[in-house]
Fold methylmalonate-semialdehyde dehydrogenase (CoA acylating).
Amino acid sequence: MTDSSSIPTVKLLINGEFVESQTTEWRDVINPATQEVLAQVPFATEQEMNAAVAAAKEAFKTWRKTPIGARARIFLKYQQLIRENMKELAAILTAEQGKTLPDAEGDVFRGLEVVEHAAGIGNLQLGELANNVANGVDTYTVLQPLGVCAGITPFNFPAMIPLWMFPMAIATGNTFILKPSEQDPMVTMRLAELAIEAGIPKGVLNVIHGGADAVNLICDHPDIKAVSFVGSTKVGTLVYNRATANGKRAQCMMGAKNHAIVLPDAHRQQTLNNLAGAAFGAAGQRCMALSVVVLVGEAQTWLPELIEKARTLKVNAGVEPNTDVGPVISCAALDRVSGLIARGAEEGATLELDGRNPDVSAYGKGNFVGPTIFSGVTPEMAIYREEVFGPVLCVMQADSLKDAVELINANPNGNGTALFTRSGAAARYFQEEIDIGQVGINVPIPVPVPTFSFTGSRASKLGDLGPYGKQVVQFYTQTKTITERWFDEDEVAGSVNTTITLK
């Protein structure tokens, strides 16, 4: 930890107040391009975390009864404030996370889309009615909020993923505890400030910071009813098992190994551009990053052009103009990515393009690794089995579309996949036969818009319902079914009915 009183501290948000933590444990928030310490983030005390949950529990008593139109209007105001502060949010995000300024704006914007969706909650949180299901009997459902919900978010999308979570939870009538990544919490806190400015009442949104102790408290606390998580498979599995064992709802979006298949009839230049952007954008630090390309048949001759396309990408600090690939998040991440590149070469893959130690002279202390391409990759290799989370692309080959589909289906992960082709028949076959939750046809990163839901599958997801969209309304609400009959005042009473049927 850097000992300097001039370094700002990240606050906690408890019961509508941004408060200084009383903890003795702090972590530096570091600019990954310069190693500058931007702020210090507290690992909240157990007392502080319990106070946040208590505030949320108390606020739920009134928030759950707030008219749905009043809730919606808060998010109309919130989306306006996010738009007005887009440049500032992107600048904070780039400083602490490293991605380019245009990509940082994209991060904020994809979250903003969910805020806009939350503003339409009046059309989303609708029950059903069946009139006269028996003599004078109606049955209907209402979708009621659960109570205190919580979200645990990762470093790679510090704006988008928190905005996937708390707006929809709060719009549906719940209160929320958010634990952002301790590596880059500053843009999340600015979003929290704007949420309070938009009119979210005290206690409805609370933010805590910390590591394993904070995650465990969220999983264990009896007053938290649901947990949403995005992050690694290891942590996500622990969160899901621990939260559900404590009777909570849980949704965990986890690791991935996303593949794209390229058929020879695909539009050549458009496909190459898409592959390079999806593989190396955000320095490969996306759970939807394209990390494997399967070249089919004659498309295998495209490899030299793909390598040349990757060579044209500019590695630099995210604040610099025309940067394509910024730094990875930390020195530890750089060491891990570099180690996996070395291991790939040791295990027999051909290192076609080595992105280690790029020349970024103005930022000599930055955590930079450039676009890296391996060919001759096999499923047994570590660079294929593990999620590298860096700008590393594995190129594989297949003789046919069927062989390529079988290769992808054999991988345990199921976050996203894509096919590049001009053939409708091939696209139809692919989307029917592929066992992956999110499919792109000539779209390399098929993340759905918020009117749908994020539907990663298999080892990439635990829990039935995904974040945002229609599914998350179900996740954050409990369906209550009411069956009712009203008698006329002058109705003559009938005989006693001892059967289960309604007459």
